[in-house]
From TrEMBL:
Its cofactor is Mg(2+). InterPro entries: RuBisCO, RuBisCo_large_chain_AS, RuBisCO_lsu_C, RuBisCO_lsu_C_sf, RuBisCO_lsu_fd_N, RuBisCO_lsu_N_sf. Residues 58-172 form the Ribulose bisphosphate carboxylase large subunit ferrodoxin-like N-terminal domain. One of its GO terms (molecular function) is ribulose-bisphosphate carboxylase activity. This is Transcriptional regulator. CDD domains: RuBisCO_IV_RLP. It comes from Wansuia hejianensis. It holds the Pfam family RuBisCO_large.
Amino acid sequence: MLLRAAAFLSPRNRKAVQQNEKSPGHLWTEAGELKKEETVTDKNINVYGEEIRNREFITAVYHLELPEGQDIVKKAARLAVGQTVGTWVPIPGITEDIREKYMGKVVRIFDVPSLDLFTQAVEGRRQYLVEIAYPSANIPEDFPMLLTALLGNDASTSAQVKLLDIEFPESFIRKFSGPGYGTEGIRKLMEVKRRPLLLNMIKPCTGLSPEEGAKVFYQVALGGVDFIKDDELLGNVAYSRPWDRVARYRKAAAAAYEKTGKKVVYIVNVTDGAATIEDTVQRVLEEGAEMIMMNYPSVGYSLFRKIASEVPVPVLAHNAGAGMFYEGSSSGMSSPLAAGKLIRMAGADMVMVNTPYGGYPLEHSKYLQILQKLQLPYYGLKSSLPVIGGGVHPGMVKKYVEEAGFDLILAAGGSIIGHPMGPKAGGRAMGAAIAAAVMKIPLREAAKESKELKAALELWGEG
C-alpha cells in the first residue's frame, strides 16, 4: 500500500494530483484511488499534552528561530514527521495504523515573546519553543538511537533546532541502571557523612612519568584531600600507562596514610578508544584501581554506560569536550540535559561540572540546573555527586556550599598545587575553608587558626 500524498502536498500540488491521478510518484490507497481529502490534521499530527502523558511517548522540547512569516505549525509538523515516519518526498507504505503508532506528534508550540495578534509582530526573526512527542516504540533503550531520533535527521527535516529537555516514560528509564554508587555510596565508601569532599588533580597535566607523578601525589596526599585524579588530558600514553600509574600511586597513597592516617583514593583516567578501553579498564582493576574516570563526551554516552555498568568501582564522568554538545545557540542540546540528565542515566557516580566562576562563560542558571539534574529524585535512579571544577580556591568554598550544599566534591587544582607554601599546605588550606563553611565560621576568623588558609586568602582573596 502506498502513502497518501495529500498529507504532504501543498494545495497547488494537490490540485495537480487531482488532474493527473496516475502521475509517477503519486500516492494511492489499496483500492487504487487517491484519497484527495487526506491531510495532516489535528487527528494524526497534533495532540493535547494530556493525551500523551500516560502513553509510551518520549517528549522533546526544542528551541528554534525562523524568519518572520514562516509557518511554525508546518515547521513543527515536518520535524515530527521527518524524525519518525516521513521523508522529504511522499513514499509508499505508510498506513493510518503506522501514523497512529509510530509518527511523532506536535504537543505544544510557544512563541517567544508570546504574540496573539499579527499587529504585534516585529520585523525580523521569531523564536519558538516546540514540544514534540516521539513513540517510545521507535527508540531502543540506549543513547545512539535516542539522539538520532531526537536530533539526527536534519537533512530531511531542514530544522536547525536546539534540544532543551527530554521527558521519558518510567518504563524507558527503568532500562537504565544509573549510578551504581551515587552520592550516598561515595560517602559511605569514603566514610564522610556531612561535608563537601575534596579532590585534586596531578599537575602538570601531561609529561610526568608514573614515578614522577607519584612524588606529586604523595605531597598532595599529605594535605588531607579525599581524592587525587589524573588530569583529563592524560590517558593511555607510552610514557605513562594507566595501570602503571595505579601501581605507583597506590604505593604513594599508602605511604601518605602511614603519616596522616587519612585515606586518599586515586581516580585513574581510562579514557581510550573503543577497541582498547575494556582492556585498559581490566588492567587498572587488576592493579587495584579503586575508582576510574572517563571523558564521556569523547567515549560517548553508550560506551560510558556499558563500562560503568560492568565495573565494580565508582566512575567519575569528566566533561572535557562537552561544549560541543551545548555551546551552539541553534543546535545540539542544553547543558543541563547533556551534562546532567543524560550522563546520570549513563551511570556516572560523580560528574565534573563547569561553573561560571572559573573563566568559562556558563550561564549561572544553567550551572544550577545541571546540579539539579544530577541530584533531584528521578524515577528511583541514584543521584550523581557533582564535582565542581574551575575557579576553586579557599576563598570560593563558601559560595559553592551556599549554592550546591554539602553534596559535592570540590575539585581544586592550581590552588592546591600552586599554594605558596606547597601542595601539602594547599590541601590544608582547602580543608580549613571547608570546615569553616560547614560550621558557618567566617573565613577570616578561620584563617587566624590556619596559616595555610591565611596565605591562600592573601593570594587569591575571598569570593
